[in-house]
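Entry 14. Structure prediction run on the chain below.
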Amino acid sequence: MKAKLIYFLSGIILMFLISAGYENYVVSKQTANAERYQNVYVFTDSKPVMEYEYLGTVKVKLGITGYYDETRDILIKNAKKEYPQLDAIIIREFKADVIKFK
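Output returned:
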């Protein structure tokens, strides 16, 4: 009987300790998941919630067809070439900020 009580109380204490480490994250209308292309997270006209370090900016020439997929792929290629340690890019028109998560 004593062993069952100890296991029960240990289980409750463990649940409280585990739940104390979780924050309540509220999903709102602006919450989303970024897509990943060529192993790089792509944020379009948005920014990640997680803290990050700005590495630099890459641009694409205006001589391309103007299709989003082509522009995105060229920006990723240029970013990987200049900043191999990148985690993500934030696309704004014909340029992208290259970032690394902390």
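The longest strand covers residues 52-59.
Filed with the rest of this week's runs.
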